[in-house]
Write a structure and sequence with these properties.
The protein has 267 residues and is of the alpha/beta class. 22% of the residues lie in helices and 34% in strands. It has 3 domains: 83 residues, Beta Barrel (Elongation Factor Tu (Ef-tu), domain 3), CATH 2.40.30.10; 116 residues, Rossmann fold, CATH 3.40.50.80; 62 residues, no CATH class. Strands 4-3-7-1-2-6-5 form a 7-stranded antiparallel beta sheet. A 7-stranded mixed beta sheet has the order 11-10-9-8-12-13-16, with helices on both faces. Strand 8, helix 2 and strand 9 form a beta-alpha-beta unit. Helix 4 packs parallel to helix 5. Bound molecules: flavin-adenine dinucleotide (FAD) and FE2/S2 (inorganic) cluster.
Length: 267
């Protein structure tokens, strides 16, 4: 089931985040995800952040058993990958992309394709603004006539404040779609702003995943499976997701308030 890929290059992005570039092709649509397998530590879902003709990459935050294990591997190591899975974004120009923290990783392939749009990128502080110095990204943004606005919670770079405050200021009746990836509380606030302004939203959701193909049920949000029905959900679907921003499931399958889920995540 897995295809073997070799790590071609490792790029340190922030103090706890690294990008792994693999040699080889992948038939990937922005917004989809892959399952990454490594012997003895298991398998987990990741978005593809970097995409070229014969090379692709993923950006990993080293935080738990699996990701810390991956963050120790070296150039030349072989890994197993299956997928891509899930639906992906429907791309419309003249849109807004709102990303928080690591949410910039799944947004990168979308930014490569979209035109005449604004990206609002937020992070806790300057050092967590992913790819800020990436020359390819800066060139792509300029080439596609996009613009990027940075926000930090502590004011260390760009606007001092949340991405949602900027969104409120710039969203208007010419905005085609608002795309969003990142912390679920931010996604819920972005969706509420879209509803108020009657603009469609496409949100990339994250849930704990085991199989990635709609079999185990671990990634359920209400009656939807994030791996199969998502991970990108439209406004029409999000309106029915009463659990969004409120509840999520732990590894054990237990449904808990979202704050408890994020507390567990940061352990
Ligand atoms: C569609 C999708 C795309 C993702 N893309 C990225 C990405 O581009 N970069 C990145 O760093 N992370 C991404 N993740 C999250 C990544 O899979 C988890 O951070 C990783 O599994 C953590 O595993 P761990 O063993 O290091 O940490 P653990 O200690 O096991 O868990 C830390 C926390 O990560 C979350 N988590 C753990 N396992 C999974 C899982 N199988 N599925 C979903 N969440 C999990 C849980 O909330 C858990 O509390 C994505 C998740 C999904 C569902
Ligand atoms: S991860 Fe198994 S159903 Fe979604």
């Amino acid at each position: 089931m897995h295809k073997e890929y070799t790590v071609k290059e490792i790029i340190r992005e922030t103090s706890n985040t690294q990008t792994y570039l693999f040699t080889g092709k992948i038939d990937y649509k922005p917004g989809q995800f892959i399952m990454l397998w490594f012997p003895n530590i298991g398998e987990k879902p990741f978005a593809v952040s970097h995409l070229k003709d014969n090379e692709f990459g993923i950006t990993i935050e080293c935080k738990g058993k699996f990701t810390k294990g991956i963050c120790n591997i070296k150039k030349g190591t072989k890994v197993g990958i299956r997928g891509p899975y899930g639906n992906g974004f429907k791309i419309e120009n003249n849109s807004i992309i709102v990303v928080g923290g690591l949410g910039m990783a799944p947004a990168l392939p979308l930014i490569q394709k979209i035109k005449d749009s604004t990206i609002i990128q937020g992070a806790r502080s300057k050092e967590f603004l992913l790819y800020k110095e990436d020359k390819n990204l800066i060139d792509t943004i300029a080439k596609n006539k996009n613009k990027i606005i940075y926000c930090t919670d502590d004011g260390s770079f760009g606007i001092n404040g949340f991405t949602t405050n900027v969104l409120k200021d710039i969203i208007n009746n010419k905005t085609k779609i608002v795309y969003t990836c990142g912390p679920e509380i931010m996604i819920k606030n972005v969706f509420d702003i879209c509803e108020k302004n009657k603009v469609g939203c496409q949100a990339s959701l994250e849930r704990f995943m085991k199989c990635g193909i709609g079999v185990c049920g671990s990634c359920a949000v209400n009656d939807q499976l994030v791996c199969k029905d998502g991970p990108v959900f439209s406004s029409k679907q999000i309106r029915k997701l009463t659990e969004l921003g409120k509840f999520a499931r732990l590894k054990s399958g237990k449904k808990v308030p979202i704050k408890e889920y994020y507390g567990y995540r940061s352990k």
